[in-house]
Design the sequence.
């Protein structure tokens, strides 16, 4: 470690002000602080600081995503094996899945980090760690058959328009990963929906066994083919077609467990989102006029991207409600709207994405009312005190 | 048992190096100083020049805008130096003590025979007035104001802070006399806020004619600002005065003995102190003779803090104890690189989150250093400040209002109720390493500038 440190100290002057490579300072600093926590000490205020920083925070979120990622890689291979009638042996399907998923991850990180580094350099800021998570989220919420250039385009769109124009991580209004997905959904609907995109190579149609349907449970439900919906256990464990990382509720729950246990993710948002979805499901059950409305309310929580959205998307602290009371309202409405959209409007089977983006837009409004209530309380208290004296 | 205010939010930072309950009396230090920077917002005007002879209680400087508020020498001796910083700002007025201490005589008087004005004048003349601070803003009280009440927090919950019950144990008479003087200052109550988690010292509980309030909970439960918030939150226009119990004793001595006797008990604590214990010395003393040969590492690898690790002032190894401080903390500097520090399991790292494995060892104490532990970022995480600020306040929104210089919003979000010490833990826990205390003081200064005190 010592020699590495010495090497960095040796090349550092080149990147500092007046050095030949000054234009790469942010990039250099990004790598340096990645390798070494800086030696910067407190100058003002509290002399000691919590051990937590944004790198640690983000890496824990990435860690929480790993179960969903690993399962997603396996499931990509498994679904393909089902479609082609190949044997479902463990290693071959994992290798197949890796071959499909890894390029998407690489493209997402390369494009996203490239743009982030450039912007940080132009602004002369430190590189922000936010994209470490976004770059992992994007591959997990796209269909496996998506062309790589679309991943690149969507990533570029979301980083530039969704984040950097607002000032970078911490300033954005919409969840960057979801914005990337929404971009793809509206720009290239044929690659983002239908029955063929969720299983690798299905759209090409070569070697697919007769009668295989790549429809997701949500698509089945929207088409009122209730008998075709897989068993609840299959949906919970994730042996179903869907976006790469969203299928296994179990893997997502492991991630949720990590987020809540470490205190990084807001349990309030996760719980309230689940409650919201459940409530809307129950309302539909009570007033059911079609088979989709009749499916058990709790099935909504294990279908589609609901669980993934609740655990990893809704909890994004930047775009969520920032007040603790607001978080309850925010999460509950996400759950409510997600189920409402997916059931009532069959054109948008994936209501979770739209619900979260909608509530991202309304989160500041929720906070505004929560804060106003506090301000009113304070004013009332002052008025009461003035009266008594 | 009276009603206990339970403070449910907060954080105790378990640091190594708590002071052992042993008093050590030390000789006169080689120098003493009064530091204008201990008093935020003060513009000092010197009353002495280098070489002047002073007695304990002789004025060294006064407030330019309120000349009756004097800042006096804690010892008799010779003004050695007026240390100045940028733009000739006065940093320290340093006095070298005589071996034989002489005191200015302010007269022994029974407070009950004095009027409010006489009490105030006596305190002003002896230089103990600045011990009375006002809320809002946590600045030296204006002698022309009439406060709604006075609050004394009888326990300190900050990391490694001195046990005040231990520190005051031989000072019952002076404490009672100090409280008698304070009672003259307000028509309202004098409140003594006690820790409900153990039986407090008789010195506090035997005091007559005051209101006792009990608190339990983690730091900042011992902060007077938090206590006021739970008893009688400050509204616009309210003024409440606060005094530290050790300063009440110094005020009491002024009335009992007629002199400014700045003797107080302080704790020397921190992981790098060989023998952390209590010292009896005078306010403003140089710390050199208590830290000499008493640290685990060479001085250049240490940080000396007058006060606690959250709110204290950084001083040199030959620096001086601050006017309001009751402790000196010595911790290691953190000016080193840590290879993949953010990825380490973190058995030796303390965090309010559960993101490090040290959480698996209950009761573990830490030798924390001064590294920022990461880079400064825009706000990303939410709900962290709220966990350590037990007040009905939205801290992040308040900080943002200050950054935006929005006076109305600052007022509406409760800036009158907080001081730096109350939000120091917010700064400690901040993932984005925001300088909360400095921002808050800027906000307070803006309020004073725009609206007056």
Sequence:
């Amino acid at each position: 470690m010592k020699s590495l440190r010495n090497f960095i100290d040796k090349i550092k002057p080149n990147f500092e002000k007046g050095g030949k490579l000054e234009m790469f300072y942010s990039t250099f600093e990004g790598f340096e602080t990645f390798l070494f926590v800086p030696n910067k000490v407190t100058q003002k205020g509290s002399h000691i600081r919590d051990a937590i920083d944004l790198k640690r925070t983000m890496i824990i979120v990435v860690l929480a995503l790993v179960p969903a990622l690993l399962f997603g890689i396996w499931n990509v291979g498994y679904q393909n094996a089902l479609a082609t009638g190949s044997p479902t042996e463990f290693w071959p399907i994992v290798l197949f899945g890796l071959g499909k998923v890894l390029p998407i991850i690489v493209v997402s990180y390369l494009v996203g980090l490239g743009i982030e580094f450039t912007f940080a350099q132009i602004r002369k800021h430190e590189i922000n760690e936010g994209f470490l998570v976004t770059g992992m989220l994007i591959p997990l919420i796209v269909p496996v058959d998506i062309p790589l250039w679309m991943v690149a385009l969507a990533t570029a769109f979301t980083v530039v328009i969704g984040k950097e124009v607002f000032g970078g991580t911490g300033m954005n209004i919409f969840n960057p990963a979801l914005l990337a997905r929404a971009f793809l959904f509206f720009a290239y609907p044929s690659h983002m929906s239908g029955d063929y995109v969720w299983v690798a190579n299905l759209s090409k149609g070569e070697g697919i066994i007769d009668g295989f349907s790549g429809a997701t449970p949500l698509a089945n439900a929207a088409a009122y083919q209730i008998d075709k919906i897989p068993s609840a256990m299959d949906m919970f464990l994730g042996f179903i077609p869907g976006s790469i990382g969203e299928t296994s509720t179990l893997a997502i729950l492991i991630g949720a467990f990590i987020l809540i246990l470490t205190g990084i993710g807001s349990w309030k948002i996760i719980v309230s989102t689940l409650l919201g979805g459940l409530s809307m499901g129950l309302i539909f059950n009570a007033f059911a006029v079609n088979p989709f409305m009749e499916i058990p309310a709790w099935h909504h929580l294990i279908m589609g991207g609901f669980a993934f959205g609740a655990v990893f998307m809704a909890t994004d602290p930047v775009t969520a409600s920032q007040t603790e009371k607001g978080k309850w309202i925010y999460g509950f409405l996400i759950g409510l709207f997600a189920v409402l959209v997916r059931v009532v409007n069959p054109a948008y089977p994936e209501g979770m994405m739209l619900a979260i983006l909608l509530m991202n837009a309304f989160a500041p409004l929720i906070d505004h009312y929560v804060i106003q209530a506090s301000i009113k309380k304070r004013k009332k208290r002052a008025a009461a005190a003035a009266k008594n004296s | 048992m009276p009603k206990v205010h339970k403070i449910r939010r907060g954080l105790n930072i378990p640091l190594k190096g708590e002071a052992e309950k042993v008093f050590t009396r030390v000789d006169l230090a080689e120098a003493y100083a009064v530091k204008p920077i201990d008093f935020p917002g003060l513009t000092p005007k010197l009353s002495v020049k280098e070489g002047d002879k002073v007695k304990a209680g002789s004025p060294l400087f006064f407030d330019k805008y309120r000349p009756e508020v004097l800042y006096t020498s804690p010892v008799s001796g010779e003004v050695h130096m007026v240390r100045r910083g940028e733009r000739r700002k006065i940093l320290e007025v340093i006095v070298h003590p005589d071996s034989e201490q002489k005191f200015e005589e302010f007269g022994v008087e029974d407070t009950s025979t004095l009027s409010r004005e006489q009490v105030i004048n006596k305190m002003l003349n002896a230089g103990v007035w600045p011990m009375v601070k006002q809320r809002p803003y946590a600045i030296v009280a204006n002698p022309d104001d009439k406060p709604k009440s006075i609050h004394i927090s009888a326990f300190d919950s900050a990391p490694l802070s001195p046990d005040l019950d231990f520190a005051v144990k031989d000072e019952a008479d002076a404490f009672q006399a100090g409280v008698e003087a304070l009672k003259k200052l307000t028509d309202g109550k004098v409140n003594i806020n006690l820790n409900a988690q153990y039986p407090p010292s008789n010195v506090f509980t035997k005091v007559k004619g005051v209101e006792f309030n009990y608190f339990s909970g983690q730091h900042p439960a011992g902060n007077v600002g938090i206590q006021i918030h739970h008893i009688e939150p400050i509204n616009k226009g309210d003024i409440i005065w606060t005094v530290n119990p050790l300063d009440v004793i110094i005020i009491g001595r002024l009335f009992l003995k007629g002199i400014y006797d700045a003797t107080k008990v302080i704790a020397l604590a921190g992981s790098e102190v060989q023998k952390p214990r209590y010292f009896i010395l005078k306010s403003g003393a140089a710390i050199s003779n208590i830290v000499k040969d008493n640290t685990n590492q060479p001085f250049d690898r240490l940080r000396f803090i007058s006060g606690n690790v959250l709110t204290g002032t950084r001083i040199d190894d030959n620096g001086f104890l601050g006017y309001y401080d009751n402790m000196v903390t010595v911790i290691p500097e953190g000016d080193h690189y840590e290879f993949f520090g953010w990825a380490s399991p973190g058995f030796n790292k303390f965090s309010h989150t559960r993101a490090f494995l040290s959480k698996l060892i209950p009761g573990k104490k830490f030798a924390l250093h001064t590294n920022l532990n990461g880079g400064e970022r825009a706000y990303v995480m939410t709900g962290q400040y709220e966990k350590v600020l037990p007040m009905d306040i939205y801290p992040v929104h308040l900080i943002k209002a200050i950054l935006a210089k929005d006076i109305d919003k600052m007022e509406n979000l409760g800036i009158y109720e907080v001081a730096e010490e109350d939000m120091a833990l917010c700064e400690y826990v901040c993932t984005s390493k925001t300088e909360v205390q400095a921002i808050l003081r800027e906000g307070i200064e803006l309020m004073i500038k725009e609206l007056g005190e």
Summary: Chain A has 17 helices and one strand. Chain A touches chain B through 59 residues (CB under 8 Å).
